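Recall that a protein's primary structure is simply its ordered list of amino acids. Everything else, from secondary elements to tertiary packing, is in principle encoded there. The following example makes that idea concrete.
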Amino acid sequence: MGCISKHYLNEFTILGVWKIEEELKTLLDSVALDNGDKKKYKVFASNSRKLEFLSVRALLAELLGKDARIIYNKNNKPFLKDGSRFISISHSYKLTAILLSTNEKVGIDLEHMNTNIGRIAFKFINRREKITKEIENRRYHLYLHWCAKEALYKICDKEGISIKKNITIEPFEVKESGEIKGKVQTDKINETFDLFYTRYDNYAIVWTKKNYDKG
């Protein structure tokens, strides 16, 4: 299916989503890999990991053109090689998402809601956070908290942040799509972020962006 969403959030920021339905060879033939990409690609043993890697390149080409390239720092955080935009990437099962902005730092996370996340909620939900007791919405609510915290972790780009202790999602009513607020509090960070979420099929998707003064 390829690119299923290409949405301009504002004049600076674009969100793209790719649904992986292609065979491995089809996707490989559709992207232009440089030598660095080819080296990384050869390391992957599983077809699913190869498909994820290729879908990111295919989606990036769809959003910015075939010459756009991704590089990684020592912590495996992605950057655009030409430094023209901030970038955040997420993939789970058959979906890949990329968030790009010329002047806003960004963070995005998506998750395929295929597990009983309630079993591990104690690992990332803190006492200040409220989860609905409605059975039909509880799992989605938990996944939104998880995705929101991952998105905030990415946008802060700081090592040593505890998703449970240092990131708090303010109480919100569960809807198909909406806005929520999250706080990141550490010895060095004390910031509040606006986050946006939606559901696509059985996926939860959350993203955030914040103006960044390059000066």
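Helices lie at 24-30, 35-43, 47-64, 135-156. The first strand starts at residue 2 and ends at 8.
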